[in-house]
Amino acid sequence: GAVVSQHPSRVICKSGTSVKIECRSLDFQATTMFWYRQFPKKSLMLMATSNEGSKATYEQGVEKDKFLINHASLTLSTLTVTSAHPEDSSFYICSAMLQIIAGGFSYEQYFGPGTRLTVT
Amino acid sequence: GDSVTQMEGPVTLSEEAFLTINCTYTATGYPSLFWYVQYPGEGLQLLLKATKADDKGSNKGFEATYRKETTSFHLEKGSVQVSDSAVYFCALRDISNFGNEKLTFGTGTRLTIIP
Fold it and tell me: Could you tell me if A99 and A2 are in contact, meaning their C-beta atoms sit under 8 angstroms apart?
């Protein structure tokens, strides 16, 4: 259980176009999802926290008008890279928060496999 | 702000060797600590965690102990297998400035085990 999918796994687009990446929790509902960006030989950097039904919270330095996040349902969050440029080429990873109510309250993040974006 | 430093890879070991991947952290609060593993073509998977000082997380033969005095959470395994080849990420979980939970990751260590 607790599977998170991402689509597409790889995408190549031309500079100036927009690209949408989907993140789905397949077997659980997630009120909170996260979007990360991973640079080569660097750690995952949190871009934004996405809460179902409300606006995303962006980390400092992340342009919210460039990286549009929509969390319209409890199983789907989308990241749209608008007017993409070569510097936006990266590996984008999402995660979904699963709340565990057993022997107390806890929660874990489950990660998708990532999307490789290449902007030419 | 919070940060995680882990040993740079790649690390190459022979099967049945002893593994240590070092991880140290900086945090203002009392974070929870994690090790995630990423197999080729897959998403990050939680390997083990510890939520308070002196806790030991363990899973699949891997262990790590939350050492507050040295701000460390080193990953160890006594005898590695070829199937352990993957990228390992150390991470801490704290509360962000917005009041949300936030994971901060290290750079990842690529481990290759040769038969």
Answer: no
